[in-house]
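Service request form, structural biology core

Requester: graduate student, group of Dr. S.
Request type: structure prediction, single chain
Budget code: on file
Notes: please return the result as structure tokens.

Sequence provided:
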Amino acid sequence: MHGSIITDMQVFNDNYVPPTLIVRADEAREIIWRISNKVIKSGNLTDITMIYGQIGRVGIGKTTLAKYAAIKLSEELKEKGIRLRYAFVNAYGAPTLIDILSSIVGALGLRVPVRGASFVETMKSIADYLMVKDEYLLVILDEFQGILLSNKISPDDLYRLLRVYEEIPAGDGINRIGYILVANDVRALAYIREKIPQVESQIDFMLHLRAYSSYDLYKILEQRAELGLAPGSYSHYIIEMIADRYGEDRGGEGSARKAIKALQRAAERAEMRGDNSISEEDVRYALAQDSYAYIDIRMLKALDKHMLLVLYAVARATSERGGWIPTSLVRSEYEEVSSLFGEKPRKHTQFYEYISTLSRLGLLEKGVEKGKMGSIRLSPEIPTDVLLEVLDHILIDKLGEN
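Core staff response, request fulfilled:
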């Protein structure tokens, strides 16, 4: 039984495929159109589609796009009287050829022995089954780079897998097996040229996915929240906080996977507190779990005392009201905090230099969009109460108990 906030835990699962793709809809339509058009017009499916991302970027929707396209393609062809099934093979950890064939056989529900049988025998069983059933098969090879770099599958076997009908001519003259190769990044093309150069020219369509922007992630998180969280349990601001933390345009990894997990962690923390809505602090704690450390204490200790007082003022204002804080309000808080610690506040010019420095250090964010100009906020991954406690100790050490 779920708590009062999370209504459908599956929505936050890595393997979840949403009913619609909010961000990659155009890419999905192109994959579907290309394969559907080929099957309808020629009656054959031999296409190889390759999806790859940016170097060093994960969680950018490659696998979800491939699965979604396969599901929708099957539905679209079914309306035209054509049956297509898909088999998903996760090649993480470099599976053997037997492992891959076992996954395909399992997806089809075939009762044929794989271990002990030759490649040709197994693939002929699959091809014959599809011919008898008058069905097509789309195989998704996820983490394809792992196969290319593995020594568990020979180049010859990999080529035969991808070009099966060159090895086993179709009994009725109709080729029925196509592939979507999901690779980490463009380096997969170099590995293909090195290991199976004949296949490169056989790739019908290559699709490069960029990491998600903060806007992309906002739309994705908004959809997941609508599908998996109770109405009224979240605000648009907390979704924005997470999207801004991970959006590539804001210096993040552009990872939907991390953003979705952060939303789940924030919801779980709110439930654990017994609340029926997600607070800003829930999000800060969720984001902090994905950081190397909550706060770099050594960096804070090296800061000028008035820079620390400005940061303290922002943290206190965040604790009291949350969200984006007008700089004028931070200034007032700074003056009050300075008085509290027995210090005379610096003039406005110096105050704004402190704000800029803290922003460059990644402790604060300055509003640059319409409606946020002239406002700042504490970086989303910093829990406010933890920061206030740390700053209290550092300031007392620097200024004395007066």
